[in-house]
């Protein structure tokens, strides 16, 4: 039986048909992909343009002291802040009892986070090539101070708390406090703030005004701002010399607040600039005079601060801590500086740490500080680019000086 062989025409037709099917399938897949892309662009816009137009910048720490931590939004990991730490939307800043931090945000404003505070960076981005900036910070606990710079019409700087949402104008200085009893207060020293409370009240707080918000989110009190008393003595970094084996009596003095009428003052003296409980030496309340005598202070390094209380109960912010030292008269023994190390922060900013005799004044790059009771010192300084050595000068209570040079970036002994 003979089998019929296919003709050449039939073979060519079969090959041509398969090729057409492959081409058709390929074109169909390309069409589906193109259609999907067009639908995405129509619904969501150009993703590449969005990357160029919106820049989610990392807020950065200008300075920090003590225990400051960051909880990352993406991983929920808690990290200790260092010189290279950046903050991104959703990150949480936590300051402990001995911690505080100053943060630079996308619109050029600065945020000072006080001790025992919890703050979330909700938004921090630049849009449309710098034409618009969005900054939003939420205060969950504690106190922050905010200062804004010049702004465009498209700048949004918003502070949230549990009870309020506030929009800050340009050139505004203000503080926001969230207390443990779920009450809050807002102080405006310069500029103005548009505030909406949880109860729906809207108001504008202007320079020199104070607002207290109760637990229900209502404005409980509005009055003139009670300003901070100004410390006058002892001056910051002042040295008080005593004889060996003796103590000293110190008179603390301050000026009345420039605005507001205080009913009385509170004063604290401590061995820590954060006035933690274990470091407090003196606490006095209900002081009606602008001076207070502190007796029997032993040689060492101390810090003091003062605040005012109005008849209404409004409490001013604390004054900046003033540092003074009580030191024993020394002979002319040679001053020594050792254990010096530098830590890079950013730009030309470094933190310099080291040791010398207790109570010595240490000067580095135009700044100075007093060595603590254990002889340690710490300074944040600006060092010009290209500088290889650091000049450190130590001076004792009798005016004797010694100058040392240490390499930058290396631990020196």
From TrEMBL:
Residue ranges of the region described as Disordered: 392-413
PANTHER family, alphabetized: BLL6125 PROTEIN, LIPL45-RELATED LIPOPROTEIN-RELATED
SMART domains: FN3
Keyword Phosphoprotein attributed: no
Keywords in alphabetical order: Membrane, Transmembrane, Transmembrane helix
Coiled coil: none
Domain called Fibronectin type-III: residue spans: 233-331
Organism listed in the record: Pyrinomonas methylaliphatogenes
Name of this chain's protein: FecR family protein
Keyword Metal-binding: no
PROSITE patterns noted in UniProt: FN3
Transmembrane parts of this sequence: 21-42
Compositional bias ranges of the Basic and acidic residues kind: 397-413
